[in-house]
Amino acid sequence: MQDLIPYREQFLDRLLVQDLQGGIAVIDAAIQAGFPPKTILLKVVSPAMDHIGTMQANREITLSEVFVVARISDAAIDRLVRVLDSRSGQTLEDATAQAVIVGSAEGDYHSLGRKIVCSFLRMGRFRVIDLGASVSAQRFVDATMAEQAPVICVSALLLHTAERVKEIRALLHERSLEDQIKLVVGGAVFNIDRELYRLVGADATAVNAPGAVTVVRSLIRGGS
């Protein structure tokens, strides 16, 4: 089996020129070459989106371009999910799957990292409820109760938005849900300060999307 590096480079190239059909063609070629969908997500889509995220942070790409890139990435991920479903005989939208609530902290409008985490959770057979960007503490907790989800995952890029996680913790305490619902955080600011998650009241943090799946599974099983 050949290496995935050429596919990664080709997919990134298609993202940079905002070529939806070309991006999907690269993913299809990797699938036809025999690579597993999860491996393609991890080694092709995720690194390419990380590169786009760096460009966005450095203001080397406009918001409108990021929007188009995100659409291409979503389409690629949907293609991989469908292939995984067809091979496993299961669906990622199974109503019996464990629900996980995901969203960006209030005031945080960055979405690329969150979308990648959602994709890995879906491939990990979780039923993902993505609340989107700039989500209030009340929306997080209300959605968690409505979906009977045992875990909330919060993404934050900067310190001032990471601080909003404290509001989620306070609301969980107010509603006597601290023992029932676990709080996981992630994002650049938590990778810089590895103890910050404790200071904002989270139960755990993950350095990347695959790590988020591991952490969520551990918390659901009663780990810490």
CATH architecture level-2 label of the largest domain: 3-Layer(aba) Sandwich
Oligomer: single chain
Query: Number of helical runs?
Result: 11
Secondary-structure class: alpha/beta
Radius of gyration: 17 Å
Number of domains: 2
Cα shape: globular
Order of helices and strands: HHHHEHEHEHHEHHEH
What is the CATH fold-level name of the largest domain?
A: Rossmann fold
Number of strands: 5
- How helix-rich are the residues, as a percent range? 55-70%
The stretches of 5 or more residues where confidence is low (pLDDT under 50) are none
CATH class of the largest domain: Alpha Beta
**Could you tell me the mean pLDDT?**
89
Strand content: 5-15%
Sheet with most strands: strand arrangement = 2-1-3-4-5
Question: Features of this protein?
Answer:
about 220 residues, alpha/beta, Methyltransferase, Methionine Synthase (B12-binding Domains), Chain A, domain 1, Rossmann fold, 2 domains, 11 helices, about 10% strand
Structure description:
- By secondary structure, the protein is α/β, with parallel strands linked by helices.
- It has two domains: 84 residues, Orthogonal Bundle (Methyltransferase, Methionine Synthase (B12-binding Domains), Chain A, domain 1), CATH 1.10.1240.10; 122 residues, Cobalamin-binding domain (Rossmann fold, 3-Layer(aba) Sandwich), CATH 3.40.50.280.
- The chain is built from eleven helices and five strands, in the order H-H-H-H-E-H-E-H-E-H-H-E-H-H-E-H.
- A five-stranded parallel beta sheet has the order 2-1-3-4-5, sandwiched between helices.
- Strand 1, helix 5 and strand 2 form a beta-alpha-beta unit.
- Helix 6 packs across helix 8.
- The chain is globular.
- The termini are far apart.
- The mean pLDDT is 89.
